[in-house]
């Protein structure tokens, strides 16, 4: 790809969880919503955050995956410089391709919203939930209500030990054993 396109596209995931895949432990995004948002390349960080707020229905924290990275190392985007750097990373990764890569963005609620979110355990039966199914995508919960989308989302594991422990616990839960 020789010239930069006028727009950049973000593949935005929100309202779900980052969980290890049961087969190999690789992190993936489960549940919630994933949408593509196209914005002008010259957009400022504050304008992008306003678009994302309209897009999701509430304020969000923006974290992006590096082009060849995984979900364990998400980069927080907090200003214009961070936004320019992640855009440049994706531009460099797209150089030899015939199409530009979409910037993989994971949107989560700011810490202030997490503190005031209601406990969702009473909103649906715990029997319908499993460690692999998000409670935020059940037919009983409104899919676009911010409190339901951003209830109690776990953070990605910080290191391999935590990832392996989480995988082992999920595997044992899946097999019906006590942890």
From TrEMBL:
Alphabetized InterPro entries for the sequence: Gynoecium_Dev_Regulator, PB1_dom
Q: Which residues form the PB1 domain?
A: 22-102
- CDD domains annotated for this entry? PB1_UP2 (cd06410)
- Disordered: annotated segments: 113-143
State the SMART domains in the record.
PB1
> One Pfam family name from the record?
PB1
| Protein's recorded name | PB1 domain-containing protein
Q: Which organism is the protein's source?
A: Pisum sativum
